[in-house]
Every structure is written in C-alpha cells, then in structure tokens.
C-alpha cells in the first residue's frame, strides 16, 4: 500500500496493541495486560489524530512531540477530535509506562504499539534502516484520511507536531 494521503480511506484491518489505563494500575511500576486495539473498528465513526514516533522515551518524542499533544488536548477537542493516539514500535509495556511517565490518565491519549512497525511499513512510513516507525501524523474523520504528514527531517515536528495538526483541522 502506498503512503496514506488526504482523501484515502483508512485501512480496514489496522490492529494495534495497548494496555488500557486503570486507576489500580496507574503507577509507572504497575503492569497491565496487553490487549488488541482494533483501530479500524474503533475509529470508524470518530475524528482521530494518530501521531507516530520512532520510539518511546527518546529525546524529541519525550521533550517535544508528546508534550505538544498533551498541552493541546483542549484545542484538539474544540476542533471535534474524539481520539488522540500515539503509536510506536515499542512493546505495550513500554508504551504504557511512557503514558504514565507523562502523567496521561484514562484515555486522554492512547499509547498504542505497532509491533514490528507493521502498520507503518504497510503505508510506507517506517524507517528502512532501523525498522522503526517513522515520525508522522494522520487525521482520520469517520474513516477518511483528511491529513497525512510525514517528517523527512530528523527531529522535526513541522508536519507531525500538534501545531501542524491543529492547523490542518
């Protein structure tokens, strides 16, 4: 499949993994049980911002990328966004811990995992050398892609940062 672009339908078979946040497992040292997250089904009738990072706990991702979305959650909600999700190739335990480290509670931002960067590879947006997820953002509105931006410069958030996504809404 070529890279997603505005006007495309979101694929019908996208399943990530994640660990749902719960109060009883809200501490960073607590582990939950990974479950499948059928994004195609869950997002079919919602407005969604999906942004991808090369890896949890990495410099640009932790210092700028995720914090930008946390800060802009109210603005994204004002624009009608129902779901904000971040995805990386890391396992669900690391992604869960990263959400907790960023003090994200509940489902404010879903911390999803794309094992082996399967989804990112399917849309041509995985790093060839490392096999990791590239840095990108996609807006899906009721199953249709309305924005898709892939970063081509290392550490850049010009296309995938919260400000760029907000400008596209």
TrEMBL record:
Gene3D superfamilies: Glutaredoxin (3.40.30.10). It comes from the Eukaryota. Residues 4-169 form the Thioredoxin domain. One of its GO terms (cellular component) is mitochondrion. This is Thioredoxin peroxidase. GO terms for molecular function: thioredoxin peroxidase activity. InterPro entries: PRX5-like (IPR037944), Redoxin (IPR013740), Thioredoxin-like_sf (IPR036249), Thioredoxin_domain (IPR013766).
């Amino acid at each position: 499949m070529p890279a997603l672009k505005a006007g495309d339908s979101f694929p019908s078979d996208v399943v990530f993994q994640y660990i749902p946040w719960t109060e009883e497992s809200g501490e960073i040292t607590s582990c939950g049980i990974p479950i499948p997250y059928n994004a195609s089904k869950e997002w079919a009738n919602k407005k969604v911002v999906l942004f991808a990072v090369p890896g949890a706990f990495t410099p640009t991702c932790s210092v700028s990328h995720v914090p930008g979305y946390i800060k802009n959650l109210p603005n994204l909600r004002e624009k009608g966004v129902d779901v904000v999700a971040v995805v990386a190739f890391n396992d669900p335990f690391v992604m869960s811990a990263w959400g907790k480290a960023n003090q994200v509670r509940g489902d404010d931002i879903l911390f999803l995992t794309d094992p082996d960067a399967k989804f990112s590879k399917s849309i041509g947006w995985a790093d060839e050398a490392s096999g990791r997820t590239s840095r990108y953002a996609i807006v899906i509105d009721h199953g249709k892609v309305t924005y898709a931006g892939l970063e081509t410069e290392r550490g850049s958030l010009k296309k995938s940062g919260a400000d760029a996504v907000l400008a596209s809404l």
